[in-house]
What we know:
Elements: H1 5-19, H2 21-27, H3 42-55, E1 58-59, H4 67-91, H5 98-120, E2 131-132, H6 142-156
Antiparallel strand pairs: 1-2
Amino acid sequence: MKSIKPKINESLFRLKLQFSEKSLVKKLANGEPPLRSELFSADQMEQHGKTLANSHILDSQRTPDQYLLIRLAENEAFLFEVHNLLTEAVKAKQQITPAGEWLLDNFYLIEEQIRTGKKHLPKGYIRELPSLLNGPSKGLPRVYDIALKLFHMAMDG
């Protein structure tokens, strides 16, 4: 059996690189890092959402229909690849990180969210969403940018 440790490390490295601060700073407007703070209360979240919305400049063009479903499929494939590599590592009695253990223990939750996304994101829906004219999420739905920013805050908080 080929050694799967390099594959796991490569996949986890790619995942880490996607969310690393250095990589993230390049993607954010003006090179500013994401906010670092405790979890927001409902009122704070509402205020933060308004602040983000006010910073957006909307485009009259809409995002291509399938963009979000394509991104979902790409992320699903990557997550399943990592899950399979971690499963192989455990079967081979190799040590995995706590994050890898968490992924294996909670993968059913990720699968459930993927199914929900596929089911409740019908074709054509994305055309109804306002898109951004500029910034790192140019051409994407405003809600996608907001979700990314909230995700990065959670990862860095």
